[in-house]
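Hi R.,

Here's the chain you asked about this morning:
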Amino acid sequence: MKSLTSMPLAKNVFLWTTPVRPAELHRGTPWLLQDLVDARFDVTVVYVRGGIFAFELDRTAFTDKSVDWREVGELTTPLWRPHRLPEDMCARVEKFMTDANLHYGRLDFLYDGSTYAFLEVNSNGEWEWLDRDRSNGVLPRVVSEIHPDTPVHPIPIPAAQNKLS
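And here is the predicted structure, written out as tokens:
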């Protein structure tokens, strides 16, 4: 189960991605359910206008506490490492972002060592904590992207112009 809004339930109380038994959920309430994917790594890809920067987190560092790395927060921050995304996955990321008409996003995957399971793309996804020592080139790419001379387009794109419609 996953929150539709990421809004706090109360001060500093969030609904993180949580394993549930669907039959036990209240039938009168809408729920966003995803299949539980058994994967060793969380992989996140920062995409900035053709630049692809992938990072991984070994899930064994927190799965005894939660299925969602965000729930254990700062415990995982220093554990993210660069991830070598295969060329075919880079091409798929590029095609997805082109089809979605997005110049920026953070794409999230689960990875079991051979298969990537796509979770979502965040068109305003945070990234700074992934490249804290500035050794992976994300910051210069983002600075170039937000430069006043870089062409932009509004989100959402009108349906008539959107390739996904």
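One quick note: The chain has a mean pLDDT of 82.

Cheers,
M.
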